[in-house]
Amino acid sequence: MAPIVLSVLMVTLATATGWAEIYSWTDPSGIKHFSNVQAPPSTPRPRIAKETRPSPKAKPVKTTGQRFKVLAVYDGDSIKVKGSNLTLMVRLVGIDAPETGHGKIPGQPFSQKSKRLLKKLVAGKKVTLKSYGIGPYNRQLAEVFTKGGNVNLKLLKAGLAEVYRGKTAKGIDLARYRQAEAAAKRSYKGIWSLGYRYQSPRLWRKQHPRR
């Protein structure tokens, strides 16, 4: 990837929809890297690229044509990917998977099944992203695609995620997502088999905040 394109990408990341910490560093070979994840401990401490106030005209990161390898799957809606000189923490936009828990607090029902499905779909594979800006915890909000199609949508169809109930990311059309959720509900798939015992991950997070 040309240095000019990487520079533009770094600025776009930092300005898209909110404040974002974008780290940049040069490896021993002289190659420039950009990431919203800290550099590995074995590399020199990266500097934080200067943050700028988001512009009203700022657009999400243009990832069209770029391929990313999935390095890690953290739960049913969070992954880490690496492309050409670019490493990103990604939150699957438009969906909310059951929480896996933290500390001594156990996870929600179906949280591990959701994580396992996402691993099956993307772990170690090449994916493409359609980005919708920056979300909480400095993560890139994105629809994730493999050769098999929209991964976000597959989790909804399997009943292992709900449509995100918070503020909708600008520019995304959730019509298909809601249709997939409704179909999974009618079939009592996954989380919807819990009936009245089901609790939205959004509500669960409010009741079990991280300290």
Largest sheet: 5 strands, mixed, barrel
Please report the number of helical segments.
5
Q: What is the chain-wise order of helices and strands?
A: HEEEEEEEEEHEEEHEHH
CATH topology: OB fold (Dihydrolipoamide Acetyltransferase, E2P)
Distance between the termini: 40 Å
Instruction: Briefly note the structural class of the backbone.
Output: alpha+beta
Considering DSSP H and I runs of 4 or more, what fraction of the residues is helical? 10-25%
User: Which CATH architecture is right?
Assistant: Beta Barrel
**Total discrete domains:** 1
**Strand residue percentage:** 25-35%
Strand order of the largest sheet: 4-5-6-11-10
Number of separate strands: 13
**What oligomerization state is this entry in?**
single chain
Low-confidence runs (pLDDT<50, min 5 residues)?
1-19, 43-61
Mean pLDDT: 81
CATH structural class: Mainly Beta
Rg computed from alpha carbons, rounded to a whole number of angstroms: 18 Å
